[in-house]
Amino acid sequence: MEIIQKKLKCPVGINKVNDLSMSRRIGEFGSSADVVTALPGQPENVSFKQYSGYITTDAQHGRALFYYFVEAESANPFSHPLTLWLNGGPGCSSLGFGAFMEHGPFQPGDNGLLVKNEYSWNLESNMLYVESPIGVGFSYSNTSSDYVIWNDTQTAEDNLRFIINWLEEFPNYKDSEFFLTGESYAGHYIPQLAALLMEYNRNPNIKPIKLKSIALGNPLLDIDISVQAGDYLWAHGAISDETLMLEKTVCNDSKYLREYVHDQWSQGCNDVFNRVSDEISEDVATDDLLLPKCLSSTSAEQFRITGKHAGKTHAAVYMHSGL
């Protein structure tokens, strides 16, 4: 992935499987120490258990990944599968986005309290949200060089160490069917982690982790394919024929994104994307043309577009306030 070589190198490959250091959590804490009795503003009568804490992935470097674990809403959560979720980015928080804005058990309401998410994935599965790689969310390293040079292979190895060590803390889930899921740049994280996990499972001297399948939502698999928005914007009447032609001949989305990451903007790309910005209405949400746009306000965050979403407040604002 050339696109992020300046900030994160992204070699695709699996190595050092046999050298993985299965270090324990920093300190001698059992999983009971990570029990979350209740979140601030949590609804009453919550029947499932929650946990959060750190799992060490490299004791020598002082590296640890933060997790938020929600048991399945069931009388017997151990009869349900275990699903690990990673947000993408690189740099997006699985806690702030995946857990509290997408499919976790709670979402922030406009009154500052949490509300039950009727579409929560923990209705069907035990959910394990991991902030990865280090530097994302609450995950950290005590070795400063870890923040300077990092790549996707290291992320996969760290995540495998996390899984193995986490299962030592939660041994009741060792026999659970295991799903790896994620979105966006997790289109790289998840397949590489799955390949590393399958290689780990080939060791006849260990108990294999029961990887069932992987699932990817809007994954970034190839930058030249995944970010070409020009045709989509044009098909929805957001940009003109002339602007679409400029995107095809002067500067498309992948070229612009590469220039952005490397701080090397060309005049041609600047001109094309200034034109795109001018043509797209301020009332349109560029992340999803079919959804209403959220506008900032000192009193509230509410959608400008009317319809069934009118009057709803923007969960992102309340999520930031809650965290």
> Beta-strand level of the residues, as a percent range?
15-25%
Classify the fold: give the CATH topology of the largest domain. Rossmann fold
CATH homologous superfamily grouping of the largest domain: Alpha/Beta hydrolase fold, catalytic domain
Average pLDDT, all residues: 82
User: What is the CATH top level name of the largest domain?
Assistant: Alpha Beta
Total E-strand runs: 12
- The count of helical stretches stands at 9
SSE topology string: EEEEHEEEEHEHEHHHHHEEH
- Which of globular, elongated, flat, extended, rod-shaped describes the shape? globular
Radius of gyration: 21 Å
**Helicity range:** 25-40%
Number of domains: 2
- The helix-and-strand class reads alpha/beta
- End-to-end distance, in Å? 32 Å
Please outline the major beta sheet.
8 strands, mixed
CATH architecture of the largest domain: 3-Layer(aba) Sandwich
Low-confidence stretches: 1-30, 296-314
